[in-house]
Amino acid sequence: MESIDGAMVGREREQTVLSELVAAAGGRALVLRGDAGVGKSALLDHVAGLAEGEEHRVIRAAGVEAESELPYAGLHQFLYPLLSSIDQLDDRHREVFDVVFGRGENSPPSVMTLGIAVLDLLSLAASQKPLLLVLDDGQWFDTSSTEVCGFVGRRLTGSSAKLVVGLRAGVPSGFDTAALPELAVTTLSGKESEQLLDMRHPELDSRVRHLILDEAQGNPLALLELPSYVRGNRTGHTAEAVFGYAGIPLPQRLQQVYGARIEALGDDVRAALLHGALDGVGAGAATGPTGSARYRMTDVHQAVTAGLLDIDALSGDFVFRHPLVRSTVVQMATPNERRAAHAVLAQVHRDDVERRATHLAASTVDPDEQVAAVLEAAADSATRRGGSLAAITWLTRAAELSESHEERSRRLGSAAYIAGHSGRLEHAQQLLRSGTGSATDPSPDSVVASGYVAFFEGEDIRSSQRQVFAAIESMRDSGPREPDEVLTRLVDLLLAINQYASDEVWWERTHELLGSLGDLVSPYSRIYQDAWGDVVRRGAGVRERVERAFAGLHLEPWDVTRLGAASYHVDTLSQYRPLLQRAADRELETGAVSDAMTMLHLIMLDQIAVGEWDEAELTGRHCLELTTAHGHGLFVHHTLAYAGLLAALRGRVDEARELQAVVDTWARPRGVGFLTQIADAIGTTAALSEGDYEAAYLHAIGLTSPGSFAPYAHQASRTLLDLVEAALHTGRADQARRHALAAQEAGLPGISPRLALVTYGALAMTTTDPTEADALYERAESHPAGADFPFELARIRLARGIRHRHTRGRAAARRPLTLAAETFERLGATTWTERARAELRATGTPPVTSSAHLSPLTWQERRIADLAAGGLTNKEIGARMHLSPRTVSSHLYRVFPKLGITARAALRDALGKLPDGPNM
């Protein structure tokens, strides 16, 4: 695209949009998308010039095919000019950048962590001078850089930094799903094409001019380059004569143009061009220093004269005139020429493990264990920096170059493991099918990888259980004498399978096996062993161990997930939910997507527990979409199980029973006891919701017998209150009392706060001593866990109100019944609300609606108001309720007029006038 009198031909619309972007206040992002040669680079030059004229600092980068698999190679181009600003950041952010660029040893940052660090860096740099980031050929940016740039581009509002990206249409790119605003750069109109052609090539005769216009199809680069090629072709001025046949694709025509010039060069010049092309030497405008030693072409002035290269005005280096020149150079080289060039480049980058690996992989044909080891080291480097795709690619290539079957199997197994945790099950399966071990003697790595794939799909849990168990036994008998990563992966996988299988025999066998391993089992794995299996018998002290583990630094996403599951079993999940939410957001952007699914399950469970039932339904829908899209059959039905449980709590019993049937039908024949137990719990909850206590009792005793807690049945202790209440309402007082006492004798109050709450409630419900009952009810209602488990607390209050109405009279019953009714109403537990209201009517209280003051308050507003009345700051409330301080402030702003007050100091008195008081 060229200009007439300083104006670009046919780009008035694009120029207007770019001018508005530069002039706009605040940060923005824009993607220019169009075919090769359509003029995107010229528009990027234009916007850079506009920004420089407005005193912006401009940083340019360009994607190149040769670096498309090097993690953060593209991002480095943007960040290198900002190194001085990086040094001004705090230690945490500097450590993030150190890890990304291979200078640190910490765990790789997530897209969110790195994205936030980049945003802070850009804000710091732009605070002195507005900043424009210009990216050309973004389709060749490596995946890690693309994900971070997309994350940053969506969050530039409010800063003084802007991002403009040029993308080639028809080439898949991570920017395709980045949700950034786009501007299509189309071909020129017929009139505009004529203007440009006549301006640059006025001497063309009419036949050639017509041919060029017809073949260029409005593509500016073709209009500029084709004339000289057509004039030099002596076979005639027809499309078939010039290009070999009519209808040849335009990029191929242009490659023929460049190919003819390349063929005319000397061998040394062509070799230098090939080295430069394979090493990603720039094309077009200067991008500034990259901080990376790149091949420098020398003695190539002949290529400049031929219109193939330009000289960078800033560095003086030779650069390709257009990316199509670079790709044509590579395509014209023979395979042997390309391999030889890669071998030379591997020596150029002998001190850069990842670049060296890239070129060694391309230069080697036959198995070579030394090269394979270099590629594996590069994969480890990429994994540490968060480049899972590059790691999978290098491990796969390392496996191809392995000299032994064992090494090939091990490397493919590691690649499949990373692919599985990244949510790429299909890719993981392909790697497994390509040979991660023999059928008779699979390697430990292949067992880990195949086990996780089978586990996520949920189709073959029992077979995986046997295979993983055997692999651990084999490693114990002949394997490491020190902690080993593969062994830890096997142990954690076995524990996860056991958790879902919920089989007592297998758990006992596993305890025996892990006992024989001694210190080879990691402390984290020991936590999972005690929490996931039988928390009633092994849960003492788990809360404290989980807390210490969460306090550790640099947890991997799978560690966060597994510790989160452990915290669920001891009912302390709420205090770790902010961490889980951040981790889930991070991993959903990219990374361990399979772990993110479990994180969403845990978040949903905590939302159900604390009474955020609307939010829990939204989380469940999100998780169901995600698990379905990735084909994780086990997690799909796990999500449906929790959705069914929530529907039962809300009184939607038909929906609950339909989901119960779906889950049970899928899980029971596969031996997934974890889900069949939840299905039984759905049946119990649904029956209680509609007052069918006999059905509720039968469902509950299907989970555990009265007076005991079935070993390795995670729902056994969770249904304590259900079994007791159902037994009492069906005339089985002895069974109810026996079960409550069994909970006390098993030490459940010491295992978790929720179990303490429901144990005291169950003891209060079942004792015949009025004084003891009052003391136990008071102990339950005053327990700190009451605020975090409002549904259970409301049920205990409802039971207390009913008991008071029968033993102490109507007046004594009104307060606990009112508190219960208000809570059920806020939660949306419709059938429980009606039951509490009916009990209130029996006390002579008028029909309960909502109090005049309280009805406008949502459940969340009431919780915030209570916490604020207790003296907590907005920041402290936000930390407890997983909200930002600003959101807390907004809620309080709406609460004050609803309560008829104007100051925070008046909250306690205003809330004290409500029926349930500030301790609700």
From TrEMBL:
Domain HTH luxR-type: 850-915
Any GO CC annotation of this UniProt entry: cytoplasm
Lineage: superkingdom: Bacteria
Keyword tags: ATP-binding, Nucleotide-binding
Keyword ATP-binding attached: yes
GO molecular-function terms, A-Z: adenylate cyclase activity; ATP binding; DNA binding
One GO-annotated biological process of the protein: regulation of DNA-templated transcription
Entry keyword Cytoplasm: no
Database matches in PANTHER family: TESTICULAR SOLUBLE ADENYLYL CYCLASE, TRANSCRIPTIONAL ACTIVATOR DOMAIN
Protein name: AAA family ATPase
